[in-house]
């Protein structure tokens, strides 16, 4: 196949694959895997080249964390946390919404946002039933909180996992550079959502007492397993924090944590591996090959050259362009394939433009892709997961209903991110100021949804399905 024909063919396969993923007519894992098969059969890439383009660090990190979380969820600790938060909010629906959003954001940063919503949504339905309130506002807030929280760390959102693997940026790099602005965006977003929903989710005092009567301890199913899981999870997160210093890939940390947990729990490996979302894994593998074909035939390099001409090779305009392009694109298409396309593009921009330090562009891509996923109901994997779980339980989240609330908030978050990136580039000391401000804002927010007082209550079990 001639070079020009290869360019046209690889581009066509990429666009068709992308269109099928967006249309959701065929499962995205099937679409990506079929696209990869066509690329190899057509001879654009041979098997060795295809394997080269698969980022096994990303794959390993995802598999390892899925196993750890899959075993941990059997303990009931996530249901415990949700009910404990609802009781701290004294059964008030609007404060429960904020408390569940906080847990969702924190767990999304420490685990990942897709896993977090899988854990939190069933409890949310149970609490909404007790309060006899509309569950949709809770779900919308949790979607937004999961994507915002996931932006803060290396392991919180698949785009960050991919960026970290491609750049060798570590866990603490993401925490130091992204968490301060994420905290500001999160608190402002939840404050606005509380204003929007404060009149829509009200309930009677006796129903609030039902929440206070729940006993969160009943949700812990296996104390011994819980201790082992929390110990291994703590060691794994510590490993992420230190992995740059001990010169180990993040995938090695995650897979080692999974192996240790399987060892100490004597869990049946076949049962434990059921918690791995294999369609997600194969989706990533297929996607890496399809995007790798574009890189191989020179399409990515040509786009990078054009981007350099548009921005004049200047870092600040390039970063802001990537931020807004990523945000708008990720709102309407899944941010995972978009980021998979952008990573080699940014690498080529650095190589062609002679830019040594590309970190500013990576933070722009991360903020744009992760926060942009909040723009529409199909913008991120966590969004789609919540839609499916809600529909199974008889609740429907409409595209326009979500869009009217989420898209303006997404734009606001990108404006804040843009100001942060501008200050980050022009005045580095601003990061220290913002970090201090973010800590104060977060502390005030946590105190606002907690009440130190206690209310005696009868123990009552809650059904989480």
TrEMBL record:
GO terms for cellular component: plasma membrane. It is a multi-pass membrane protein. InterPro entries: Arsenical_pump_ArsB, Cit_transptr-like_dom, Diverse_Ion_Transporter. The chain crosses the membrane at residues 6-22, 29-47, 59-82, 94-111, 174-197, 245-264, 276-294, 306-333, 360-390, 402-423, 429-450. It is found in: Cell membrane. The keyword Transit peptide does not apply. GO terms for molecular function: arsenite transmembrane transporter activity. It comes from the Bacteria. Residues 18-368 form the Citrate transporter-like domain. Its main location: membrane. It holds the Pfam family CitMHS. Keywords: Cell membrane, Membrane, Transmembrane, Transmembrane helix, Transport. CDD domains: P_permease. Belongs to the CitM (TC 2.A.11) transporter family. This is Possible tyrosine transporter P-protein (TC 2.A.45.2.1).
């Amino acid at each position: 196949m001639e070079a020009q024909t290869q360019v046209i063919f690889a581009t066509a396969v990429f666009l068709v694959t992308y269109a099928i993923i967006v249309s959701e007519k065929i499962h995205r894992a099937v679409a990506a895997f079929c696209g990869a098969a066509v690329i190899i059969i057509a001879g654009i890439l041979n098997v060795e080249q295809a394997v080269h383009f698969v980022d096994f660090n990303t794959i390993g990190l995802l598999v390892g964390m899925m196993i750890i979380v899959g075993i941990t969820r059997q303990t009931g600790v996530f249901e415990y946390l949700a009910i404990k938060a609802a009781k701290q909010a004294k059964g008030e629906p609007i404060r429960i919404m904020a408390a569940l959003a906080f847990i969702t954001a924190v767990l999304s940063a420490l685990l990942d946002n897709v896993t977090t919503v899988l854990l939190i949504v069933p409890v949310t339905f149970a609490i909404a039933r007790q309060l006899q309130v509309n569950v949709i506002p809770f779900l919308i807030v949790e979607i937004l909180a999961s994507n915002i929280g996931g932006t803060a760390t290396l392991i919180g959102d698949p785009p960050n996992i991919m960026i970290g693997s491609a750049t060798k940026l570590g866990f603490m790099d993401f925490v130091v550079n992204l968490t301060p602005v994420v905290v500001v965006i999160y608190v402002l977003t939840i404050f606005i959502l509380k204003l929007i929903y404060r009149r829509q989710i009200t309930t009677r005092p006796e129903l609030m007492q039902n929440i206070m009567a729940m006993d969160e301890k009943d949700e812990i199913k296996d104390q011994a397993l819980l201790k082992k899981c929390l110990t291994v999870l703590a060691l794994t997160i510590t490993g992420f924090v230190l992995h740059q210093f001990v010169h180990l890939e993040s995938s090695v940390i995650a897979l080692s944590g999974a192996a240790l947990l399987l060892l100490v729990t004597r869990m049946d490996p076949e049962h434990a591996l059921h918690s791995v979302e294999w369609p997600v894994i194969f989706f990533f593998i297929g996607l890496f090959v399809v995007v790798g074909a574009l890189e191989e035939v020179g399409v990515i390099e040509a786009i990078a050259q054009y981007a350099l001409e548009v921005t004049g090779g200047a870092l600040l305009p390039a970063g802001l362009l990537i931020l807004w392009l990523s945000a708008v694109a990720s709102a309407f298409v899944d941010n995972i394939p978009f980021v998979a396309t952008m990573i080699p593009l940014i690498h080529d921009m650095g190589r062609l433009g002679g830019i040594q330090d590309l970190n500013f562009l990576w933070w722009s891509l991360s903020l744009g892709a992760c926060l942009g996923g909040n723009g529409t109901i199909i913008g991120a994997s966590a969004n789609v997961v919540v839609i499916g779980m809600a529909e199974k339980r008889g609740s429907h989240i409409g595209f326009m209903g979500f869009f009217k609330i989420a898209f303006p908030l997404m734009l606001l978050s990108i404006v804040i991110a843009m100001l942060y990136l501008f200050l980050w580039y022009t005045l580095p000391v601003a990061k220290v100021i913002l970090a201090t401000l973010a800590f104060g804002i977060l502390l005030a927010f946590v105190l606002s949804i907690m009440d130190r007082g206690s209310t005696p209550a009868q123990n009552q079990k809650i059904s989480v399905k």
